[in-house]
Amino acid sequence: MRILVTNDDGIRAEGLKAMVEVAQELGEVWVVAPDRERSACGHSLTMRDPLRVKPHPWESAHAFELSGVPTDCVNVGRELMDQRVDLVLSGFNHGPNLGFDITYSGTVAAAMEGALNGIRSVSASMAMFTEEAPLHLTTGKAAFRELLPRLLQLEWPALAFFNVNVPAIDRAELNAPVFCSMGRRVYEDRIEKREDPWGRTYYWQGGVVAMHRDQPNTDVEAINRGHVSVTPITLDWTDRALLDRLLVADRDHPAVDPALER
Ligand code: MN
């Protein structure tokens, strides 16, 4: 199995190293990761600048740093690997990617890019909730050693990938993985208005999570209870239920187009 490992925290991130260690037990590993931190870049794509590749010293893996974002890493990685990629692993991100976070996340975007190119892909994040908290990558590695073979046995529908969060806690305290849906994570006080020494206004974007309780069967709840959350995500963003209702409404009350009446 040929595995492409990437992340959004950059090629020097500890979480990436941990993921490579797990991947090496499963197959041939290629690392293509951003040359610097690119967190919260979402599914962006570099189109107005060249993408430079630089070999990065790595024991028993082909490793390259790229002057781009995670989506670029997947696409350049596929090229470097002669389009023969069986699995994309993105992570371990330093921090959770729960609920709506996945729309901002570069970690998850790499898995999206893999999935839309027909490659089985998994995004992985260590869910600690303060900057200073330990990452507990040993827990992440143990969880993935168990989880990945299980996921690889499943049949993956087209456009589907898995978003996985591992609680950053001691391995002994870790609960079993659960399959769950994407929760709702909303931030409060997102924009902070400040003033620089010259009296000019500027803004910091951050905020604290406002909504985290009473979300049964979601990634948010799973993590709060110390479980590894495993959420199947699809790239078909169509709201099927709404579309069905609209189609029925259209059939029952067709909009009259005067051009067609004539
Ligand atoms: Mn990150």
Keywords:
13 strands; alpha/beta; 262 residues; two-stranded antiparallel ribbon; 29% helix; binds manganese (II) ion; globular; 9-stranded mixed β-sheet
Describe the structure.
The protein has 262 residues and is an alpha/beta fold. It has 8 helices and 13 strands. It has helices spanning 14-24, 70-80, 101-104, 106-116, 137-153, 219-224, 240-252, 258-261, and strands spanning 2-6, 28-34, 53-55, 62-66, 87-94, 120-127, 160-167, 175-179, 187-188, 191-195, 201-205, 208-209, 227-234. The strands form 3 sheets. A 9-stranded mixed beta sheet has the order 3-4-2-1-5-6-7-13-8, with helices on both faces. Helix 1 crosses helix 5 and helix 2 (70-80) packs across helix 4. The longest helix has 17 residues, at 137-153. 41% of the residues are buried. The model has no long low-confidence stretch (mean pLDDT 95).
Shape: globular
**How much beta, percentage-wise?**
25-35%
Q: How do the SSEs run, as a string of H and E?
A: EHEEEHEHHEHEEEEEEHEHH
- CA radius of gyration: 21 Å
Give the proportion of residues in helices: 25-40%
Topology:
Blueprint: E1 2-6, H1 14-24, E2 28-34, E3 53-55, E4 62-66, H2 70-80, E5 87-94, H3 101-104, H4 106-116, E6 120-127, H5 137-153, E7 160-167, E8 175-179, E9 187-188, E10 191-195, E11 201-205, E12 208-209, H6 219-224, E13 227-234, H7 240-252, H8 258-261
Parallel strand pairs: 1-2, 1-5, 2-4, 5-6, 6-7, 8-13
Antiparallel strand pairs: 3-4, 7-13, 9-12, 10-11
The structure holds manganese (II) ion.
Q: What is the compact description of this entry?
A:
This protein has 262 residues and is of the alpha/beta class. The protein has helices at residues 14-24, 70-80, 101-104, 106-116, 137-153, 219-224, 240-252, 258-261, and strands at 2-6, 28-34, 53-55, 62-66, 87-94, 120-127, 160-167, 175-179, 187-188, 191-195, 201-205, 208-209, 227-234. The chain is built from eight helices and 13 strands.
